[in-house]
Amino acid sequence: MNTLLQDLRYGLRMLAKSPGFAAIAILTLALGIGANTAIFSLTDQLLLRQLPVEHPEQLVVLRSTGARSGRVWSDYDSNASFSYPMYKDLRDRNQVFSGVLTCFPVDVNVSGHGRTERAGGELVSGNFFVVLGVRAAVGRVFSPADETAPGANPVAVLSYGYWSQHFGGDPSILSQALDVNGTPLTVVGVAQAGFTGVQAGSAPDVYIPITMKAQMTPNWNGLDSASDYFLAIIGRLKPRMTPARAQAGLQPLYHALLASELPLMTAKKMMTSPEAQQRFLGGKIELTPGARGRPVMQQDAKAPLVFLMAMVGLVLLIACANLACLLLARGEARQREIAVRLALGASRVRLVRQFLTESLLVAIAGGAAGLIIGRWTLGALIARIPPDIGASGLAARLDLRVLGFAAATTILSGVFFGLLPALRASRTDLQSAFKEQGASVSSSSVQLRKSLIVVQVAMTAMLLIASGLFGESLVHLERASLGMRIGHIVQFSLSPGLSRYSPAQTVALFNHLREDIAALPGVASVGAAEIPLLADSNATDTMSFEGYTRGKNENTNAWVNYVSPHFFSTMGIPLIQGREFREGDIASSPKVAIINEKVAGKFFAGRNPIGLHVTIGGGPDSHPNIEIVGVVANAKHTDARDPGHPFVYFPYAQDTTMGEATFYVRTAASPLAMAGTLRKEVARDAPDLPVYDVRTLTEQLNASMFSDRLVTFFTLSLGLLAALLAAVGLYGVMAYVVARRTREIGIRMALGAMPGNVARLILWQAAQLVIIGLIIGMIAAIAAARLIRSLLYGVKAADPVVFVLSALLLIVVALVACYIPARRALRVDPTVALRHE
């Protein structure tokens, strides 16, 4: 212990004698560790952390393969959606699970205390909390007794966060009724703290029994339909039951259930052909790991986060290589001190431990500063995440897992950049060290530092190329043609259906609102759509087209949306043929539709589609009876990456389940200035409805590109930081080389060498390191770029422009770094240099 304290005191004194080195080393490490800590925290919360439930390793998520016919709802994988009758059969008749739960997310309007707010709800089975092993913080959670008959279980459990934020943690909320989507629900409990559902990035506020679905989604029940697939199913394996055995044991039951459903499908003319029936019966059950919950957010976030972790890891390696170079230089400068200590009997192990202690002191200080930077970076990232991309419930704090990661990174970094210089410094030759300037003749040390610089340049080249590729990809995204004009449009959404409005009442309200908004000063036009644009949301249906014969197994699906009159003119989507929807296109008038160019080109090639017909459905009894009255240009619907799809639009007044819409208001002035006026207008016409997603359409587009902007910003920042670190390292090596070759440079100049020749000599040495590092880095970047092709848009993985510009930038940085050492070489006085040794 005394020896350790001596090492610590001596290390602190040595660092205090070199405040410049200590400051640079600590700042370098702080930036690297801080970036790693922030990205790891996001990665841990979204990809790595298990659900805070009992034995999460026993959980599995169910999927099924095979043909389906009917209504399919899914938030990430249609094969992971099941009907409620199928869920009940799997729950009650399986032999491999100790429990099977189901859930379905639903938005809710919660009324109370004189106001109505929009919240996130989740319909869950009665055994939801029991299977997960989640207890109540207050009151009780659901039990199987809370899942009896449709509409018979008007109770609710609040999440701990919602209870704390909206009710101040007041336990008197128990037994009180909340008006949820127009239905009084009695609060029976609050879920335990820390539990935020079974899906990372999604934190429900209110849990409601699945048997209340008809009340929570008034225009769509689906509980009694075997062809309505919308439920997620999670099972808990019995003790000592493996997923492989469970999957094999579940398959006979699943096949029998499909066979029992087939007559019903056939009766509804959903499975008429023998081929379709065979594909339906060939469905197989699959079990995927569920310890981390439903992999919805993981599916979208995995690739960007893994890539960012690799990038920040590279930066930390560059920082460590840089510090290793600095420590090698310090070791050379301290050779006399080391020689004296060796001569006095100090062991090599003792010296290595002393140097490692100094390195770890630097690392610990850098790690502590890195935690501050990481906490600030994480908070800034989470604050900028759009609220509607499925990433709610993320915490901006550094928990024990993240602190453990930061501590391990700090210690490993200290050992990584400190061990090699320590071993190198402890092998000092006593005879040469006691000679004057003997420390300056270690050619092997210089070669090692040069090798580290080559590694830095190679990794920096990779980061610069990656940042260039993502930067160009973002530019392409921002310049992508959307097929519409998004400027000067403000949007807002309403869900009257959740507040018990019938479809007819909803349509009447929307029509009245459009009229009132269109009359406001500064409003150029107004339109509305059931499915919002540029919000990564869509709906598809199998379609039949007049005069088009469907091929065997051909996909005739089209994307659909229900929109208002003046929608296309408001959005700036060009009308190619025919007309827009009119105010007279109502529920009692003949059914009409508008198609886009992709539908016209694929299903009406060589024909004028105006006056022809389409219908929803693809069976032999589907007869097109909806008249096509217009053709519009193709427009992107989900986001800027949307490749475009066959699209059929219908009047929202002819939607028999109309319950929500997003309004788009084109203004002559600033759209943001109109937001408050629009809220007041809605409050006057529908005071019981919360207004949500109020933003400009440009903001909506930017939100849809959040992950692209995040990756681009980080890679660009990391690339520039890496270039700066490489410049510092290259400067240090070249300054040391000039100092070592002072006598040689003096002799050359005494013999008549011109300053330009001396400068080229120094610059050529630096150029060799940069060229070798560039070649290695570009080869590695080509290989790495192929792995990130799916994250890019409109950019080739080996884009020559990006590679050339990255190389030029790195060369310029290298020239700047070598400028001072080169000038110092030119100022060498031959008479002084000849007395240098």
Please outline what is shown here.
This protein is an alpha+beta fold. Helix content is 49%, strand content 16%. The chain has a six-stranded mixed β-barrel with strand order 3-4-9-6-8-7. A six-stranded mixed barrel has the order 15-16-21-18-20-19.
Task: Please describe the topology of this protein.
Layout: H1 2-17, H2 19-48, E1 59-64, E2 71-72, H3 84-93, E3 97-112, E4 115-124, H4 128-132, E5 136-139, E6 155-158, H5 160-167, E7 177-180, E8 183-191, E9 206-209, H6 213-216, E10 228-229, E11 232-237, H7 243-267, H8 274-281, E12 285-289, H9 296-333, H10 335-343, H11 348-384, H12 400-425, H13 430-433, H14 443-479, E13 489-494, H15 503-518, E14 523-529, E15 540-545, E16 557-563, H16 567-571, E17 575-578, E18 592-596, H17 597-603, E19 613-616, E20 626-632, E21 647-651, E22 661-667, H18 671-685, E23 692-696, H19 697-704, H20 706-740, H21 742-750, H22 755-785, H23 800-826, H24 830-833
Parallel strand pairs: 2-10, 4-9, 6-8, 16-21, 18-20
Antiparallel strand pairs: 1-11, 1-12, 3-4, 3-7, 3-11, 5-8, 6-9, 7-8, 13-22, 13-23, 14-22, 15-16, 15-19, 17-20, 18-21, 19-20
Protein architecture, described:
The chain has 837 residues and is an alpha+beta fold. The protein has 4 domains: 1-49 and 295-435, no CATH class; 56-291, no CATH class; 442-481 and 706-837, no CATH class; 496-688, no CATH class. It is 49% helix and 16% strand. It has 24 helices and 23 strands. The strands form 4 sheets. The protein has a 6-stranded mixed barrel. α9 runs parallel beside α20 and α20 (706-740) runs parallel beside α23. The protein is globular. The chain starts with a helix and ends with a helix.
